[in-house]
Amino acid sequence: MSSMSEGSGQHPSQSSRERSGLAALVFDAKARSLFFQAMLAIAILGMIWVAIGNAADNLAQQGREFGFDFFDRPSDIQILTTFGTWLVGYEPGQNTVFHVFIIGIANTLIISLAGVFFATIWGFLIGIFRLSPNFVLRSFGTIYVELLRNVPLLLQIFFWTALLRIVAPSQRGEFSTLVPGLLQFDAKGIYGPYPIPHDGMGVVMIALMVAIVAAWGFGKWAKKRQDATGQPAPVGLVSIALIIGLPVVVFLIMGRPLSIEWPNFVSEGPVLRRGFERGIGSYIAPEFMALFLALTTYTAAFIAEIVRAGINAVPKGQSEAAAALGLPKGVAMRKVILPQAFRVIVPPLTSQYLNLTKNSSLAAAIGYPELVAVFAGTTLNQVGRAIEIIAIVILVYLVISLATSAFMNWFNNRVKLVER
Amino acid sequence: MIDRPVEYPAVDHEVAYLRTEEAPTLQPPGSEIGFRGWLWRNIFASMADYTSAPAAVMSLFMTAITLFTGYAIVWMAWTLLDFTVFSATFTAAEGLKRDACLPNPGACWPFIEAKWYQFMYGFYPPEDVWRVNVCFAVLAAGIGWLIFGPSHRGKVAAFMLFGYPVLAYVLLNGMPVEDNGDLGHIFSGVWFPAIVAAVLFAGWWLADAGRLGDVGSAFAPVLLMGVIVVAIFAVLPLVTMAIDLALGTEVVETNKWGGLTVTLVVAIAGIVVSLPMGMLLALGRRSSAPIIKWSSIIFIEVVRGIPLISVLFFASAMLPYFLEPGVDFNKLLRAMIGVMLFASAYMAEVIRGGLQAMPKGQYEGGMSLGLSYWQQMRLIIMPQALTTVIPGIVNTFIGLFKDTTLVLIISIFDLLGILMATLKDPEWATPTTAYTGYLTIALIYWIFCFGMSRYSVHMERKLDRSHH
C-alpha cells in the first residue's frame, strides 16, 4: 500500500515547504500505512466479533451448544463397505462418530492416492501421445484432452456411474469376469481374493522392507560408482530381483504363511440370497470405481497438457545434442529431455494433485463415503453441529493440501536446476 | 598458416562430359510428397526401423499401439454415431413418450425435445420467459461485440461488467417497486443517499482542485470512492424502478429459476465479482503492510486449500449461524457468494503471476513520474499485468463455469441439476434416456468451455506475437 509513496515520506526536507501537525501525519507514509492497516484489522476483528456473537445467539435460540463432545456419540448410520470401514472394522451402532470421521479421512486418502498414481501414468502417456509424430496417437491424444477437459467433472462422475451400471450384469445370480480367475464383478461391485496372513508373515514383511532398503542402497552405490568411473550398473534389474526375490525366498522358507480367501458365489437357493456372499473375499464398491475412473481420466487430461508443455519447453538443441552423442531415443528421453522437462512440470503437477484430492469430495453426489459425504453430509444431518463439523472438514483439507505442497516442494527442490 | 595461391585447372569447354547448362530439377520421389509422403511421415516411419533388436522391438510395439488406438478411435466414433443417429428415436407421436423410445437401442431425442424448456429455463413461468431470452440475447451481443466488435470495446466491457448484472437482475428477478400503487417509498429511500452523494461529490470536486490544501487533496481519492459507493445506493433503485416501470415485470422467485439460466447467472456473478476482488487480493498479497499482506495470504491459501463443496456447505449450512438471528437470505445468493469467494482466490493467484512478471522498471518509471500508488497500479501496472495473464484468466473462467455444476449438491437446479431431476420422470424412463441426457448436457458445457479455451489460445498467440 505504501511502499511506493515512501519516497516522498522519507524526504520531507525536499518538498517545497515544511509541513507540521496533522498535515505531516497525513503525508507520512508510515502513519498512513499504519492507519489503513489498523482500519482493516478493526474491520476483520469486528466482523469476527459480530459473527461469533450472532452464532452464540442463534445457537442459544435453537437450544444447541458449541462443543466437540459429539465425537463420542455412537453412530448407527449405514456406511458402504470401503477401505475406511475395513480399516476401522465398522459396524453400525458399535462405533462412534469419531470412527466415522476416520473412515471419511481414510476413504478420501485412498481415492486420492489411487487417483494421483494412475492419473500420473495415464496423463504422461497421453501427453507423450500428443507429441508423437504418429498421426493416430496424436489425434487420439488431442481428442481425449479436448473432450474431457471441457466437460464438468460432476457430469463425468454421473456418466461413469451410469456406465458401470449398464456394463454389470443386472440379474441376481449372474456375474461377469474382469480378470479371468482373479476378479469378477456384478451390479454390486468387484470381487477378488483376500489374503489372510498367518504367523510368520511379519518376517516376510520385514524381508520386503530390508529388500527395499538394500535396493535403495545399491542404487546410491551404483550412482556413486558411475559418477566416479563411468561404469553403469544394472540398477533396475538388481532392484526388481531384490524386492521380489528376497520376500519370495523368505516366504517359502517360512512355510507359506498366507492363505487366500476366494469370494463365494451362491447361484442356488432363493433369488434374494443369490450372488456373491458379503464379507468373504475382497470387495470394491462400484461407487469407488466410478469416482476413481472419473477422477483419473479427468485429471489425466490436465496432466497430459502439463507434460506436453513441459517437454515442449526443453529446447530442441537438447534432443539434437543427445542424438549427436549417439544416445538412443529412449535414453535421450530418460536422461536428457525428461529431467529438464520435470522442472517445468512439477509445480503445475502439484496443483493438479491437490485439485484431484479436492475433487474427490464430489463423491458426495454419488454416495461414496469420503470425508465430505459421510461427515459433512450424513453425520451433520444426524448430530446437527454445522459450525464444528464444517470447520473440522476445512481443517482436514488444509492439512492434506499443506502436506502435499510440502512434499512436492521437496521434490521440486530435488529436480530443479542447480546452477553453478 | 601458409598462404599459398591455389591453382585451379583451366576449364575446357570442349570436353564432352562437362555440362554446360543446369540439369532440370527432378520431382521428389512419390514416397516423400503428397498423400503417400504424409502417410509415411505421420504413421509408418515410427514402425519401420528393424536395423537392431531394440529398434525392432520398438517398431513392433508402435505398430501394435497404433493399431489398437486406431481401432479404439473408430470403435468410439462408430458407437457414438450409431447411438445418436442410426439406432436413435427422433420423433414420438403425441402422448407416446417413453413407448416411442423403448423399441430402439439408441438415443431418445424426443425426451430432449420435451424437456428442452426446462434445460434452458428451469421452472420459469412460460409467459415471462422473454425476460430470460432478452438477458441471453444481450449477453450474446455483448460477448460478440467484445470479440468481433470494431470499436468502443472498453465501453462495452464496462457495460457488461457493471451494467449488465443490474439489467439481468431486474429482468430475471423483477422488482416489487409498486407498493400498493405507490412509488413514494422508492423516493423516500433514495433522497438521503442522493444528498450525501452530492455533498461528497462537492467535497471531492473542491479537494481535487486543490481548494482544501494538501491534506484535502490527499483525501480526494477517499472522497471519490465514497461518492461512488453512496451513489450506487442512490441511483440503483431509480434505475431498476425505471426499467421495471417500462417493462412491467413481476417478481419471479429464484426457486423457479433453473437450467442454463442458473448456470449462467452463477458463472457470470462469479466472473464479475472475482476479477476486481482478485485484483485487490493480489495487490494485497504483494503489499508491504503486514496486516494487509497476511490477511490476503490467509484468505487466498485457505480458500484454495479446500474443495468448492465445503465452501458451498459453508455458505449454505454455516453462514446462517453467523448472521443476525432471523435474517435468512436466498439459497441461490448464498451459493453465489460461495462461488464468488472461491473464484476470487484463484483469480488473485493468476493476477499475482502477471504482477510478478512486470519488470521492476515499470514501477520505477511510475514512481519517477510522481504517480501515486493507485495511479501507478491503474495506469501502468494493472493494464500490462492483466494483458499478460489473459489466458490464465480465461482458464479460471472455464474452471468456474464447470464448477457451477456443484451447486446441485446443495439442491439448486442448474443445468446438470435439472437433468438429474428430469431423469427421474417415470414417463420418460428408458434404458437410454440417461445417456441421451448426459450427451446433450455435456455438449452444451463443451461448447461453452471449448469456445472459451479457443479464445484463450487465440489471445495467447496474439500476445506472443506482440513481444517479437
From TrEMBL, chain A:
Membrane topology: Multi-pass membrane protein
Transmembrane segments: 34-52, 97-126, 147-168, 201-222, 234-254, 288-307, 389-411
PANTHER family: AMINO-ACID ABC TRANSPORTER PERMEASE PROTEIN YHDX-RELATED, MEMBRANE COMPONENT OF AMINO ACID ABC TRANSPORTER
Organism: Sagittula salina
GO BP: amino acid transport
Cited CDD domains: TM_PBP2
Chief place where the protein resides: membrane
Family: Belongs to the binding-protein-dependent transport system permease family. HisMQ subfamily.
Superkingdom to which the source organism belongs: Bacteria
Ranges in a coiled coil: none
Chain ranges of the ABC transmembrane type-1 domain: 105-408
GO MF, one annotated term: transmembrane transporter activity
Name of the protein described by the UniProt record: ABC transporter permease subunit
Keywords: Amino-acid transport, Cell membrane, Membrane, Transmembrane, Transmembrane helix, Transport
GO cellular component, one term: ATP-binding cassette (ABC) transporter complex
Database matches in Pfam families: BPD_transp_1
Subcellular location: Cell inner membrane; Cell membrane
From TrEMBL, chain B:
Keywords, in A-Z order: Cell membrane, Membrane, Transmembrane, Transmembrane helix, Transport
Subcellular location: Cell inner membrane; Cell membrane
InterPro entries linked to this entry: AA_ABC_transptr_permease_3TM, ArtM/GltK/GlnP/TcyL/YhdX-like, MetI-like, MetI-like_sf
GO molecular function terms noted in the UniProt entry: transmembrane transporter activity
Any single biological process term in GO: amino acid transport
Superkingdom in the source lineage: Bacteria
Domain ABC transmembrane type-1: 260-456
PROSITE patterns: ABC_TM1
Topology of the protein relative to the lipid bilayer: Multi-pass membrane protein
Main location class: membrane
Transmembrane intervals: 55-78, 129-149, 156-174, 186-207, 219-243, 263-284, 305-323, 405-423, 435-457
Family under the similarity heading: Belongs to the binding-protein-dependent transport system permease family. HisMQ subfamily.
This protein's name: Amino acid ABC transporter permease
